[in-house]
Write a structure and sequence with these properties.
mainly alpha; globular; binds zinc ion
C-alpha cells in the first residue's frame, strides 16, 4: 500500500502540459501544428496531415524526407516532431518517478514487445472501427502512452499526420516496426532501461 502513496494521479501529468492540446500552436516560439481539423468546413475527407502549419501557414517540415520512414534518418524525424507544440511539450515533460521505476525493470527487447502489443491492441485498426479514435491513449499511467503522444502514434489521426498512413488502412509489420522504433527513441531518452 505505502508504495502507492507517492504515485501521482493522471491529472497531475496532464496539468504539466497546461492547456495545450494536439491542435495548439505557438508559432511565435517556432512551435507549430500540422494536424488538420477535419471537422472544419471545407476540410471533410482531407488528410489529417497539413503540409503547412495550421497556425502560421509556413512550410516547416520536409515531408518527402519524413515519408521515407528511414530509421537511419530517425533523428530528423524526432527533430520534426519536436516542432509541433503539443509534442514538444511531451518531449520536455518530466517523467514521474513511478514510470521511471516501472521502465527500469524492463530491458529494450521487453519494452519493444510491450510497445508492439499496445500498438496492435489499441491502434492497428481502421479509424472507423475505433471507438473515439484520439482518446484511446491516456496522457499518463505508462511511459509508452506518453511516448505515443510524443511521437504521433497515439491515434489514427496522428499516425496519418506524421507517418502518412491512411487512417483506415491496417498497418503492416514494416509500419509497426518503424512506429515502434520511433516510440523507443522517446523511451530511451526519458528513462534508463535494464541491461
Ligand atoms: Zn506555425
Ligand atoms: Zn493522436
Amino acid at each position: 500500500m505505502t508504495k502507492e502513496v507517492n504515485k501521482p494521479k493522471d491529472w497531475e501529468i496532464t496539468e504539466a502540459l497546461g492547456s495545450l492540446t494536439c491542435t495548439s500552436s505557438r508559432c511565435e516560439d517556432n512551435l507549430h501544428c500540422f494536424l488538420r481539423d477535419l471537422r472544419r468546413k471545407g476540410n471533410r475527407g482531407k488528410s489529417y496531415r497539413s503540409d503547412t502549419c495550421t497556425g502560421c501557414g509556413e512550410e516547416i517540415i520536409d515531408w518527402n524526407r519524413i515519408n521515407m520512414h528511414n530509421l537511419e534518418d530517425k533523428d530528423y524525424f524526432v527533430e520534426c516532431l519536436k516542432k509541433e507544440t503539443w509534442r514538444h511539450a511531451v518531449w520536455n515533460l518530466e517523467i514521474p518517478q513511478y514510470m521511471v521505476e516501472a521502465a527500469s525493470k524492463l530491458n529494450i527487447d521487453e519494452m519493444r514487445l510491450k510497445v508492439i502489443k499496445i500498438l496492435s491492441k489499441r491502434i492497428n485498426k481502421k479509424k472507423s472501427e475505433i471507438y473515439r479514435d484520439g482518446a484511446q491513449t491516456p496522457k499518463g499511467k505508462k511511459i509508452i502512452f506518453l511516448a505515443q503522444h510524443a511521437t504521433g502514434t497515439c491515434c489514427r489521426k496522428c499516425i496519418e499526420e506524421w507517418y502518412g498512413i491512411d487512417r483506415n488502412e491496417i498497418m503492416n509489420e514494416e509500419d509497426i516496426n518503424f512506429l515502434t522504433e520511433i516510440i523507443l527513441m522517446y523511451i530511451k531518452q526519458k528513462v534508463s532501461l535494464r541491461n
